[in-house]
Amino acid sequence: MTPSSGQHGPDVLAITQEWDAELASTDPLAFDGYGPPPDGTESVMTGSTLIAGHPVAVIRCRFDVQGGTMGAVAGERVVRAFARATDQRIPVVEYVASGGARLQEGMIALIQMARTASAAASHGRAGLMAAAVLRGPTTGGVYASWASLSDVRAAAPGAVIGFGGPRVVAEVTGHWPPADSHTAESAYRHGLVDALVGADDQAAWLAAAVGLATGQPLAIPPGRPGRPGAAEARSADPYALLLTARAESRPSGIEWAAWLTSDWVELRGSDPAIRAALATVAGQRCVVIAMDRHAFGDAAAKPGPGAFRLAQRALRLADRLGLPVLTLIDTPGADPSPGAEAAGLAGEIAHTLLAMAELRGASVALCVGEGGSGGAMALGHADRLLMLEGAVFSVIGPEAGAAILYRDRARVPELASALRSTAPDLLQLGIIDAIVPETVAAVRQQVARAFGEARPGDRLCREHQATAAALRAGAQAVRLPAATHRLLRNIYVTTSRRVLTTPGLAAHDSPIVRKY
After folding, report:
1. N or C: which end of the chain has fewer CB within 10 A?
2. Do 174 and 182 contact (CB within 8 A), yes or no?
């Protein structure tokens, strides 16, 4: 593959106003044989351009100058570009092709990793976005600093991508890496980049990634369930309803994501049981996180630690950008295998709940199939929790529950009923906010309405209220003294007020306070 140069082409967003062209490299170490780039050329160009009339900052590596390596001047240009973008509150788009830190400038070059990472962090803390296209090759200290800190990353097909280039790997390990390592395709396969984008489409992809152009719609994989048709009669038996929710013919989260969104910029992870994207729903830019029961072709995909790490990444991006979140829940439960356990499954579920809890914008969760235990609850801690008519949500699958409680598989249907996991049951218990008819139009309308009405902190109000009702019922059943009733009331009123006065959360009357 021909290394990227500084020349403009149909794949490059042209810099219309160049920044810091006067900065010229020197030879800080008096390194024997080193000839710094002549005035007017450098391995990094920075400046601004317009996308659909909106200014953006551009950082473009030139591999034809010193192999795109980053020395003092290249690092300074990157730092200043992020600083200007932060001051002007504009996004940054990046074309990356680099051999890493410039060896002939020694530690002066290496410290640019830290400086550029800090500049990127400041830009991100300001609630601004960066997107990068990694071209061939992208390696070393550039790949391991500002280039990997962009919010969304694409790679050019066939590009060499890796911290250590193949020659370095061979020298350090004694073996050349295999042909399928250190490639854009390998990075994509392992969820290290979000897309593979050919040269002709890179400018359009960058514009969509930073929200200044419409992206491509989400394509549903072939052989998947189709749109729901006319309303079907549903069994009144909870176990039969559960089996229907698990059916191979029932749409899962990714189908609903495709039907609800008009565009989709993938945030890729290593486990396809959960997918995420920057998307548009009913005209609202948002982050969508969708569980995909059909990811492995058995209608029983169970998200592992990598899937929850992707969800955390998407949630934190939404929080930083101030975007609402839509989660689509459908899973029999998290992957309980020894490998998932060793990789920290419980901690990743906990950190996903934490990321949901810390959202400062509105969040909406929709259970479209089976909400199985803690793996589903990780994405259910939202300001609005909705369920489709034929969906179920349970503390545990009845098969596993019967094994724990009864040691008797024959009692699975009995337990399915006792767990009260259907949408009407959960609405009565105060666990969910609404039941939604299973049509695309109805779901889109309800999600748009929920985005408009949800207020950060509603999630805890609903959960506190359901808990308070259960405690109140229990207190009455055992005839607790009036003083204890007052204590419970004070606990929940105080907790609710604390939630609603947390910095960044909207203050409003708590349903718990009103109920008491």
Report:
1. N
2. no
Please check whether residue 48 is in contact with residue 37, taking contact to mean a CB–CB distance below 8 angstroms.
no
Per the CB < 8 A criterion, the answer to whether 253 and 368 are in contact is: yes
CA 451 to chain centre: 18
Residue spans of alpha helices (H) in 263-391: 305-321, 338-342, 345-357, 373-377
Question: Beta strand 195-196 with 130-139: parallel, antiparallel or unpaired?
Answer: unpaired
Q: Phi and psi dihedrals of 511, rounded to 5?
A: -60, -25
Domain 17-209, CATH among 3.20.20.80, 2.30.30.30, 3.90.226.10, 3.40.50.720 = 3.90.226.10
Per-domain residue ranges of the chain: 17-209, 238-454, 461-515
- Say which amino acid occupies 214: T
Q: How far apart are CA 498 and CA 158, in angstroms?
A: 53
Q: Within 10 A of 506 (CB to CB), how many other CB atoms are there?
A: 14
**142: its two tokens:** 């550039």
Q: Which residues of 33-62 are buried (b: 16+ CB within 10 A; e: fewer)?
A: ebebbeeebbbbbbbbbebeeebbbbbbbb
Q: Are strands 284-291 and 325-331 parallel, antiparallel or unpaired?
A: parallel
CA distance 193 to 186: 9
